[in-house]
Amino acid sequence: METPINPSENQSTYFINPEEPEETARLLLQERWMTQEMGGVFPKDFDPSQVHLVLDLACGPGGWACEVARLYPQMDVIGVDISEKMMRYASAHAQAQRLDNASFQVMNVLDPLEFPEASFDFVNARLLSSFMPVAVWPSFVQECIRITRPGGVIRLTEAEWQFTNNAAFERIADMMTHAMWKDGKSFSPDGKRFGATLMTTHFLREAGLINIQRHAHALDFSFGSEGHETVYQDIMMHYPLLLPFLLKMGVTTKEEFNQLCDQISSEMQMPIFRGLFFLLSVWGTKPE
Questions:
Q1: In-domain check, residue 271
Q2: Is residue 232 part of a domain?
Q3: Domain count, the chain
């Protein structure tokens, strides 16, 4: 039986090179449709009136952080990410939009966070399972607790791989979930799921947060749906960037993968194509 690889042996914890320009463009697209699908930048029925300082962890090119800064000019928003290139892009984008209340810093969120205790009113993190080793999650959540003020909110949003009725799509889904399991980033016992959606509520509850709430989102990207073209563009940018990681994990060959991508590109445009993308947001309050 295969065993997961020790994450400490890996040189990179993200399955795509974050310095790729295609990844910046893809993440900007992804951030927009995720925020729209989630009903806005903050949870439904959340009162932002007491929020003054916001932190977005592993913020990528800064789309969510800039949107918060634009919608709520009374708030100061900080985004951090390990990619210097993305932080330069995010800073330039904020400057171009004259968002003086948005700033960005290079930071590895797997390390202790470089902020004082009780600094932030709202801490946001989305899709961290793409780079977060299983063993690091508890200490990461504790760091989030440390830097959040009493009465502040921490929100984690995670996803499972897309679910479709397409054989080529499902083959790549199997490859990706198994590769993540081998790389030590899956809570699944057999590599058939990412599993972070199962764990986020547990992590926040075990860390002592109160008033924990959850909201599930399902983006329909079936042929003819409103989300189809957006997710199609995302996938066409995303999948080629996965190949180096999948080859490294030994779950496919270049020939097989390219053939599957060609099939998906064609078959997603067929009227019979059906697809859903599931997200789960969990948030809670640090006790006073």
A1: no
A2: no
A3: 1
